[in-house]
Amino acid sequence: DGRSTLRGIKLIGFRIPGLNDLFVENAEPDFMISDRETYWSSSGDYFLYRSESTNTWGAAKAKRFRQIRQGQSNGIAHSPEGFEIWQTASSMLVKKPWREWDAESGKWITRQGSGVESRGKVRKKQGPNDKEIQTESRGEHKATQTDAH
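Below the sequence we write its predicted structure tokens.
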């Protein structure tokens, strides 16, 4: 739709390095899951999606997009149940850690300190892959600026 401003979500605290990244909104119909937009990492290797079956937001590998969309995969990380990614009120869910799949133990592990670090608008720059984000940090009122390449 030609918008030059998109929404971005910054995750932190995960063992899988690719999840600790800025995820940028893609609201194209072909990329929607459960009638919601998805968010893609700067590398394009991971994405965030709304999971109706678990009532969470999940993270998954990009190569699993079709399986996730068809409900055949559970992704590799999930928010607390009932979490809404744009909920900024002082809800306890905002501060609760996410769960991450641990391939070594074959179990879901609660990652203390994991989750959404910040959320905000992402401005498209002139360069093909340059994005700039201005977000407000969780629990603070000062704005931070992060460059993701």
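The helical segments are 65-69, 92-95.
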